[in-house]
Amino acid sequence: MDAPLSRRTLLKGGAVTAAALTFGGLSAEAARAAVAETARSGVFGFGVASGDPTATEVLLWTRVTPVPGALPGSGEGPRTQVRWEVAEDEAFGRVVRRGTVTTDASRDHTVKVVVNGLVPYTRYWYRFTAKGATSPVGRTQTAPDEPGRVHALRMAFVSCSNWTGGFFTAYRGIAARDDLDFVLHLGDYLYEYGNDPRIAGMAGSGDRYGPDALVGVRDHQPATEIVSLADYRLRHALYKTDPDLQATHRQHPWIVIFDDHEITNDAYATGAENHERDDDPDTAYTEPGKPAGIRPEGDFLARRERAFQAYLEWMPIREPATWQPEPSQGRQFFRRFSFGDLAELSVVETRQNRAQQVPATVGGAVNPALADPRRHLPETEQMTWLTRGLTARRTAWHLVGNQTVFARVFAVPRAGVLGGQVFNTDQWDGYQADQRTLLDAMAASGTTDPVVLTGDIHSSWANDLPTDWARYPVDGNSVGVEFVCPSITSNGFKESLGNSAAAATATTAAFQAANPWIRHLEGIGHGFTVLDVTPERVQADFWFIRSNGDKGLAVDPRLDPQATVGYETSFVSVKGSRRISGPVGRLGARSDQPRTAR
């Protein structure tokens, strides 16, 4: 969704290591030292994680340092055998599954194990051992998926965790919770940019993204934009040195999907905004010692494949093509999770096969390409899978984990803005035939109420989803709802409007006036959203990070390593209404708890 002020585009729309990362600065040199120290400090310094839980299975993840100091991405170190255990209790007195697996440099010494034969809606503990060392103990949980029974279902959903954007306080807040079934990460888990600071008024300067106050304090490693496989691996490793992120992975299973920054900004099927193509004369440059016109980023598809490889190595995700195979183009990442008769969750992927983004207007008129049925966001096979899921099975709710805003968002009327112009063509508004197809499927979903869960735009939203935008003020027609989570750290409305809270508040109010189906919009806070699902309603609680109680009105809590998280507001959709209502009071205790060993 975003890019730094540089040769790229403007923002659209607007252990020793743990101690150092939590309380100290991280220059580029210190960032590399942190990864190196983690690689020296122990076999399992990059933590443990679990993911993609079903009723009877869960995936376990870790990364082994095969020899002290073997940096991720270096290719150093021999094949290593790793033992894993899953137990009913944290002390491992009742081990229920165990086994061994071998890893090597071909997968950057990462480990993935799918453990089966588990009991639905049950908490387990897991650990790894290798080279005489034992990993931290992780906690995981199977899905509340038992036919004929309705259990509580509660998750946190998040997106946009830019390292150079601030401390990961929001992850610390999620790790502290004991009431979540899983964490849903909707993309931009990491960012591809380098550390070169921007220089005001100098064209082409810098590619850093985040507050200037964190230059030399929280820097990326490698220090330049990531392009090679080693680069992507090292960047993933840096993020997994963060103690708050490690704690959240250790405490809860995750369901993840990438957006663009795991590859590069505004990616589409054959390129990206943040990728210099060999056939683009506007990006020619001369580097000392190299012929004019040689560009550093090479073939886009090769770069994307390297990004995919590192993502699959370092993230707790299964490869759906070997688990839930469906017709698709390229790699299949979309997949579905079941929670008994209460809900299903379809996780979509909207970067790999999308048509290139187009301008909102052409020649003073709305661009007709926006509605061209030949232009797609997900590939047609994935759209068929998604719409079939919405209409085929009758659960109370169908949740859709999605990257970019689904609701129509018209630009705020002002001088030079065409009436009916959409705000952002990287969103579903840029692919209106697909948007219409999904709205029609929602309308045909019978007794199943659709709920879209979205990230990307670094702000908090609660939207109705009309089939007829023009008639909504008259009849309030809506076939589903959408909740959008704030960013973990990435710049939002306030930062993109000169760090003015007043400007952010005025702008979000103007967006709501121009788009009355946006029932809630807040553009200052950073944090996460908790979604709770019952047969009667879906409720979203918005939580923001705060520095001495301030969510960002006067200070920037992203800069405060001692910041906390605090509750902001809640909105609901009552079963059968397919509309947003609220605000309402915050969530209370769960209706029931997952099983644990007695």
TrEMBL record:
Domain PhoD-like phosphatase metallophosphatase per the UniProt entry, residue ranges: 155-542
Annotated region (Disordered), positions in chain: 272-296, 578-598
Ranges where the Phospholipase D N-terminal domain occurs: 47-142
PROSITE patterns, per the entry: TAT
CDD domains noted in UniProt: MPP_PhoD
InterPro entries, alphabetized: Metallo-depent_PP-like (IPR029052), PhoD-like_MPP (IPR018946), PhoD-like_sf (IPR038607), PhoD_N (IPR032093), Phospholipid_Metab_Enz (IPR052900), TAT_signal (IPR006311), TAT_signal_bac_arc (IPR019546)
Protein name: Alkaline phosphatase
Organism (species): Modestobacter muralis
